[in-house]
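S1.2 Input.
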Amino acid sequence: GEPKKGPSLARQIGILRAHDEEEVGGGDSWLSHSEWLRWSSVGSAAEPSQAEKGEIEEQKSESPRLLQSALQILEDPSRTLTLAEKRLHLVWELQRAQHEAAYRTSIIRGPTLTVGSLLIAVTVFSFMILRPTSPSDFGTANGLGNFAAVFSLGLAFGWMLLLLAILPSDKQIVASACWLQMIVIAPMAAVLAYLGMSQVLVSLDGDCSFQGMEVFCHSIALEGLADCAASFCTTCCMAYMLYQRLRLRQQGPLVLLSSACRATGLVWMNVGLFSFALKHAVWFEGGCPGGLVLHTVGLATGVLLLLLGLVFQRPQTRRWMQLWLGSFPGTVGAGVAALLGSRTIEEVMAVAQSNLRSISCERVKFSDYSSKPTKDQRASNYALTEPAEFGKVDAFISCSPDDNPSLKWDALQAWRSEFKQLYRREPKIWLDQFCVSPGLDIDVSLAVLPVYIAACKRMLSFCSPRYLTCLRSVVEIFSFAEVGKTVEDLDLRVLEGEVPDLKLAVESLNVWQTSCDDRLEHQQLELVLEAGYSGSQGLESIVKTVLYVG
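S1.3 Output.
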């Protein structure tokens, strides 16, 4: 028989009443236990549509036996699966995740790439055709001023929309975009410097006029200095991007993309502040030569560019804009696809199978379990493990490194005793401190994490408030739900003395406030949060649902 699992976490912390069919709590984020069972019985996947079944039917010729098994799993998810069928189910879930990631990418890139490219093309094409150099090209100074305002706004909006079309998971595109942006910023800074120095030299010559009207030379000088200041600040932004790209090569694509957005925002803040707002403010003080409308439009354009750049240079702006664009039903699986990265499912499965390990509980010592191992300790710990087969590992251990080691140790030993009483043998477990190969890069070890979770018979989680602030723990719970596991495969154990605080922690869970000690691991896992966000049905909702009824 199956080993006994602990009582539901909801019961342990007192948020589930006597009967499973009763509601767990109140509010939209709460689900009844029966609803969870129906949801999890197909591995968090909805009943396939006729189109999806038709697609499987069309591909039967490629692998009739496997695809026939897939249809049987979909039609009767309650039956016990063989190990081969469980592997197939995992592959199907990973394929679904990649399809949802592709769908999310398309709905984000569709509007941003189309509108951004159109704005850039129209503004550049109009400039190339009209080639404005003086008010006579438009008949009046107002015409030239309006063209400059529209051109700058169109270029700014188009530029920012094109950056929003780039996702953090596009590592090569992010790197190329950073170089391309520097190539664009460099001539922009040069043009601003040329215009500024020209105006300063004119003011020094004493031939001070604006649109045929004599004006104060200090106004011309201030106008030139404003353009020079914009050029200097734009050059600083380019240097900042170059520093991020060269000096901080180990930074992930998320950091590089954030720095690109920040530099873009700062560039347009500078242009708006110096080349429009400050320049036209000077002419307001100089008596508005050229007309009030010209300088009012210029001042308004400067303020708008300033505000636009101020908002866009914040890293949260890119994130929340992409989350809003990609928050459609059926995209939450993109979170798992973010772990896989650009690797194919075949590559991930092969790496996972060759590196899947387990360790007998009797070999785990408190001294090794109580602290984060060093590189040398990881190598010695790894030597205690043995190769494992898919479906033959008894438990995947999920816990927070910040929890009290003694409490985690006691919880592990209590579960071990229960297991030994039932099976008369030591359990084989997957434990991060022991079973992760020291030779695997962080991104590779995270890519195979969903496969490791699926390869274990159950997940044993030691819960506490700190567990819910650990980014890796949250991603493990999410991956558990997304690889086709059910509530029967989950054993959540509350650490001793943590019940009062844990109840509040579950209620107030915010995945954006979770963290990870390792910088590179944090950056990689943060991609999962962004990709898995799907509004009220997204990653955070799934994690809460698992916690409520696990």
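S1.4 Remarks. The beta strands are 209-210, 213-214, 357-360, 386-387, 395-398, 428-430, 459-463, 490-494.
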